[in-house]
Design goal:
Layout lengths: L2 E4 L3 H12 L4 E4 L11 E4 L1 H9 L3 H7 L1 E3 L1 E5 L5 E6 L10 E5 H16 L4 E2 L4 E6 L4 E5 L4 E4 L1 E4 L6 H6 L7 E14 L7 E6 L3 E7 L9 E10 L14 E2 L5 H4 L9 H6 L1 E11 L11 E3 L1 H4 L9 H19 L3 H23 L6 H10 L12 H14 L4 H6 L12
Parallel strand pairs: 1-2, 1-12, 2-8, 5-14, 12-19
Antiparallel strand pairs: 3-7, 4-7, 5-6, 9-10, 10-11, 13-16, 13-18, 14-15, 15-16, 17-18
The structure holds flavin-adenine dinucleotide.
The site of flavin-adenine dinucleotide (FAD) has 32 residues, from α1, α8 and α9.
């Protein structure tokens, strides 16, 4: 008997590594026939990086990602609104990484197979539902098979089949009338080699950051996201992380976004391939746990990709579940203790992102106050207000600097086998 995990994304693989580290048997069932390095860039916040370091992945993360040192917000005319240090430059004991999502997933998969054995994951098998009993639970698959475990954890993403069984009337994810176009281009990084920039306002926005070290010509792989608010009457394509798009659909909106430090249309034109994704989330749930089955990662709390939280929260869920297994064993109490710890914070993050209270809210405020045109930002918004806003979101998302540095490890060192 063991813990059965549905889904081998960032959440499921992080949970597998955590359970292996604390000596709990597990098996992962993944729907994709083969895990491939899909997606574009993401960010890992220091609270999640700490957990990956505790899993012994520090050197590997340095090999595939960038230690991000700055986050900056700029108006549509290129004016600097706010720049702040990130990661260790901000005083955290752990860095923030900008990294390719697919490469992170492959790193977690490779490490898991090395540590727990090739056969700890079965691919090409799609979970469709569950049954929970007093002493265990069964995961049911589309091919008619079922597998029993003492606990089932659903890490099967935003379209979770397990969540759908728990909440059959929930329906499709909720769209906020924004489309994201995501891609990578090889170019020289803006604002230094380790800076993330957010330009524009609510209706039209551009985010860019390097995810690799520069090559001999000083060029890095730059991850970028062009975001546009579209007519509420317009139709939208169902969310699919791999849907290809054409730059002609949006580049016209960014013509003219050429500043002395950045040329947005030129970066867009250099893209390898562009993917389109509607900005969607789901309402927070009143419960993640039903008997011996619980949800984690995007299956539990899909939110807008605006505060660099999706992958970070998935990793924290995994570690919190691990800590709960250590404390309560393979029981229902384990799952309720995990949910009690993680659900309130995830709910708050989702609500803050939805209400436009993420770190990027300052962009629209400047647009409202002066149409994005100013000589000195202090004449538009007092510095103290900018600072207070930036700090508020960090503590909502659980990465306030002093609190994180002082917090004990989620999985105590003595209980880690690896
Ligand atoms: C292909 C892909 C590309 C992505 N690209 C980006 C990106 O570029 N930027 C970004 O911010 N976020 C991206 N994401 C989302 C991001 O990975 C998550 O928001 C975050 O990492 C939380 O991870 P998760 O493991 O909960 O969900 P996911 O990363 O979505 O992983 C869920 C996993 O479960 C599997 N699965 C789904 N249904 C079933 C089922 N019924 N049975 C078994 N397995 C199932 C999926 O194949 C997937 O491997 C992407 C997700 C995917 C799947």
């Amino acid at each position: 008997m063991c813990v059965i995990i549905a889904g081998g994304g960032i959440a499921g693989l992080s949970l597998g590594l955590t359970l292996h580290q604390i000596g709990v048997a597990f098996h992962i069932y993944e729907a994709a026939p083969e895990l491939r390095p899909l997606g574009v860039g993401i960010n890992l916040q220091p609270n999640a990086v700490r957990e990956l370091f505790d899993l012994g992945l520090q050197d590997d993360l340095d090999a595939i990602g960038i230690r991000t040192r700055q986050l900056g917000f700029y108006s549509k005319t290129g004016g600097t609104i706010w720049e702040e240090p990130r990661g260790q430059a901000a005083g955290y004991s752990w860095p923030q990484y900008s990294i390719h999502r697919g490469e992170l997933q492959m790193l977690l998969l490779r490490t898991l197979k090395e540590r727990a054995g090739e056969d700890c994951i079965t691919t090409g098998i799609e979970a469709v539902g569950f049954t929970t009993r007093e002493e265990g639970a069964s995961l049911h698959f589309r091919n008619g098979q079922s597998h029993d475990g003492e606990i089932i954890v659903a890490a099967d993403g935003i379209h979770s089949a397990i969540r759908q069984q728990m909440y059959p009337n929930e329906g499709a994810p909720i769209w906020n009338q924004r489309i994201l176009w995501r891609a990578t281009s090889r170019a020289r990084a803006w604002k230094g080699q380790a800076a993330m920039v957010m330009i524009g306002h609510d209706a039209l926005r551009f985010v860019a950051y390097p995810i690799t070290q520069p090559d001999a010509q000083g060029q890095s792989v730059i991850n970028w996201i062009a975001e546009k608010h579209v007519d509420p009457q317009s139709t939208w394509n169902k969310e699919d992380w791999n849907r290809a798009a054409d730059i002609g659909d949006f580049i016209g909106d960014f013509e003219g976004w050429q500043f002395d430090w950045a040329d947005v249309p030129a970066l867009i034109r250099k893209a390898d391939r562009v993917f389109e994704y509607p900005m969607v989330d789901r309402d927070p749930l009143p419960r993640w746990t039903h008997g011996r089955v619980t949800l984690m990662g995007d299956a539990a709390h899909p939110t807008y990709p605006v505060g660099s939280n999706g992958a970070s929260q998935a990793i924290l869920d995994a570690r919190s579940l691990g800590a709960s297994f250590l404390r309560h064993g393979l029981s229902e109490t384990t799952l309720s203790a995990y949910e009690e710890k993680m659900r309130p914070a995830a709910t708050q993050i989702g609500k803050a992102n939805r209400a436009g209270q993420g770190p990027d809210a300052v962009l629209q405020r400047v647009e409202d106050l002066c149409g994005g045109r100013f000589k000195k930002i202090e004449e538009i918004i007092p510095r103290a207000e900018l600072e207070a806003h930036a700090n508020r979101y960090k503590s909502v998302a659980g990465f306030g600097i002093d609190a994180l540095n002082a917090a004990p490890s989620i999985i105590p060192e003595l209980t880690r086998g690896v």
